[in-house]
Amino acid sequence: MDTPTHPIVLGLWPIAGVTTIGVTQADAAATIRAAIDSGITRFDTAFSYGYDGESDKALRPFLQQDRDRYFVIGKVGQRWTEDKKRVIDGSHRQLVADAETSLRRLGIERFDTLMLHSIDPKVEIEISACAIEEMRQRGLAANIGVCNVDESQYQSFKSVAHCDAIQTPLNWLQRHALDELIPACAADDCKVYVYWTLMKGLLSGGISRDHRFAEGDSRPGYSVFQGEARARTHDILDALGPIADREGLTVGQLSIGWAISQPGVTAALVGARRADQILETSQAVRLGGEVVEEMNEMIESAGS
After folding, report:
1. Domain annotation covers residue 133
2. In angstroms, rounded to a whole number, what is the distance separating the alpha carbons of residues 201 and 270?
3. pTM, rounded to two decimals
4. What is the CATH number of the domain that holds 273?
5. What is the pLDDT of residues 46-87, one digit of tens each?
6. Residue of 86, 196, 98, 185 lying closest to 141 (CA atoms)
7. Where is the NADP-dependent oxidoreductase domain (predicted)?
């Protein structure tokens, strides 16, 4: 079972090079090494992280050096077509095939946790869940779970499969998972990994109001990076600055700290495309209740 105490899991999507242009194999290796040197031992990858499994392949050399030291979370249910379009495929046959391929890329015999990446609207969730459960029973995964679900879908998944963990977005702009999903998981002793704690870098404090994204960067397509929503977020970030200074943290560390301090949250999945990014985020810590409440009051008063 997942026993590491560090509250950060390194998410390997940014080093796959699909939406983060210019990431090299050397960048990927340096980022993973920096995470390990910072005490991070859990890694989150997926069959679809890279057109040809780049994130799996980047992690492989480290697993070959010391497999027992690291906790590997894998995901299946998304894949790329030949013309590089990402599709959701929750069919039994494809889930098994992609899990086996991912294991070969990683050079390991089983995942510590294997998760259904997305719900396929063309396939009943119970069918996909059964495929994941069967792989656990075959020994391809020690633990299993599901990502990107609401509370009702979570219940459907665990009606036919054991559910050790979920993944869901959570940050101080997106708090809906705290209403039903995370409390339900907490009641079941199901681990909760949260992602987008920095909302693709927006909540790190490192993106200025007038920042212009490079061509091919996917972030401008998200509503929180546009118009009044972005301006309001920057206003909140400015207000959070003094709190971060008082606590000896960066604004990004404060944002991650808010997420991992919520009841029921196990750890935050935080991506990085460069070593210096993970060196900062790895220092995020759980916050005291008074700090969380102070942040909540400030955020709610701003209407976010």
Report:
1. yes
2. 10
3. 0.93
4. 3.20.20.100
5. 999 999 999 999 999 999 999 999 999 999 999 999 999 999
6. 98
7. 7-298
